[in-house]
Amino acid sequence: MATTPRLDNTRPFLPVRIAVLTVSDTRDASNDTSGDTLAKRIAEAGHVLAARALVRDDKAAIASQVLTWIADRDIDVVISTGGTGLTGRDVTVEALRPLFEKEIEGFSVLFHQISSTTVGTSTMQSRATAGVAGGTYIFALPGSTGAVKDGWDGILRWQLDSRHRPCNLVEIMPRLNER
Predict the structure, then answer these.
(1) Which runs of E-coded beta strand occur in 24-171?
(2) Is the peptide bond before 166 cis (omega within 30 degrees of 0)?
(3) Which residues lie closer than 8 Å to 179 by C-beta, 6 or more apart?
(4) What is the pLDDT of residues 136-161, one digit of tens each?
């Protein structure tokens, strides 16, 4: 049973710096509707769009861009869109999982729960995933605009808001690199 997200407005909102990566062989800056949707929602939520890029469906190119952002202390979160399907060209998951120090399994579970309300059983064709690497959160969303909306509106908007209760990902960011 889904619960309504709760914000504790007595707590301060802490904007996070988010990089958006579109993975596609067919899109460019002029028709990147999923990347545009995500960038707009990030700004509307009060966060900082720290970087944005578009790369081809190529494991090395995806990993290289994400590794650059992981090393950048001015980026807290990376959100990719595209390349999470089942076709031979869908390699985002294979590019990102080796980078993860920890996988956030619950993200995929929640994504599928939410996505099933909009696309039904077709959600099983997505391999949305998430993890942490070098103190940076990494989320991989499918490439459709609807999937981006499901992932942001249903999960990330809330978990990246420092006021969300009972807990959120922002409050543990300072501890991600603890050893």
Answers:
(1) 48-55, 77-81, 102-103, 129-133, 136-141, 164-165
(2) yes
(3) none
(4) 999 999 999 999 999 999 999 999 99
Measured in Å, how far apart are the chain's first and last C-alpha atoms? 36
With H, G, I as helix, E, B as strand and everything else as coil, classify residue 121: helix
pLDDT tens by residue, 21-61: 999 999 999 999 999 999 999 999 999 999 999 999 999 99
HSE-up of residue 127 (Cα within 13 Å, Cβ side): 14
Tokens of 56: 């081809």
Establish how many alpha carbons lie within 13 A of residue 85's alpha carbon, considering only the half-sphere containing its beta carbon: 13
For every residue of 26-40, DSSP letters joined together read: S--TTS-HHHHHHHH
Q: Which of 43, 47, 39 shows the shortest CA–CA distance to 163?
A: 47
Q: Find all residues with CB under 8 Å of 41, minimum gap 6, and list them.
A: 148, 149, 152, 153, 157
* pTM, two decimal places: 0.96
Contact predicate 154/164, CB 8 Å = no
CA distance 112 to 120: 9
Q: Which residues 6+ apart lie within 8 Å of 176 measured at CB?
A: 132, 135, 136
Q: Which fold has domain 14-173?
A: Molybdenum Cofactor Biosythetic Enzyme; Chain A (3.40.980)
